[in-house]
Amino acid sequence: MNLSEVEFRQPSIEDSETCMEYINCLVDEGTHIAHLEKFTLEEEQEYLTYIQKMCEADRGVTLAAMYKGKIVGLCGIDREYMKKSAVDHIGLMHIGVSSNWRGSGLAKLLFENTLEASKSLGIEAVTLSCDSNNERALKFYEKLGFSRVASLKNYVKRDDNYSDLILLEMWLPKS
Question: Whole-model pTM?
Fold first, then answer.
């Protein structure tokens, strides 16, 4: 694994199979993502079509970290609605990295590249949510500059166990 060999680009419909493999590995790991069931190829195609529409409409940016033709990470910053709204200045972020790339610096690079690509959207702040049990991710987000702003008690339920959903935000410097 060599970070210099990782390419950051918008995923396309042609990436459906590797995208499905990537997300299904996260589901299998039991990571702290919201998804509890594996995705089908058709569902991944729908997701990638949605990403493309968001990008074409200047409503969001999603980048895939590609290594040797495989997706090893995804990060997106999207506006909440497809049409102009009162919350257009806020970007909702999601990010994930394959287990064998965690701790390598890939997530930070993926975030930085996605944030840079989203500048044309005019976003003033980025928000994200994180399972309170995912302490490693929470520390990572805070290291990037995110601050905890709210907690939704018992919002997450896995195998009859509840945890809180932590909401974080980062206001971006004005250019």
Answer: 0.92
CA dist., res. 6 & res. 13, Å (int): 19
Query: How far is it, in rounded angstroms, from Cα 98 to Cα 31?
Result: 10
Sign of CA dihedral 160, 134, 145, 118: negative
pLDDT band at 32; cut points 50, 70, 90: confident
Retrieve residue 95's tokens: 């990010």
CB within 8 A of 48, min separation 6: which ones? Answer: 11, 12, 13, 15, 16, 19
Pairing relationship of beta strands 70-78 and 90-97 according to DSSP bridges: antiparallel
Helix and strand element counts for the chain (H, E): 4, 7
- Selection from 127, 131, 114 nearest residue 62 by Cα: 114
Under the banding of pLDDT at 50, 70 and 90, the label for residue 165 is very high
Q: Which residues contact 112 (CB under 8 A, 6 or more apart)?
A: none
3-171 to CATH, choices 3.30.70.20, 3.40.190.10, 3.40.640.10, 3.40.630.30? 3.40.630.30
Q: What are the sequence ranges of the domains in the chain? A: 3-171
Closest CA to 66 of 29, 31, 106: 106
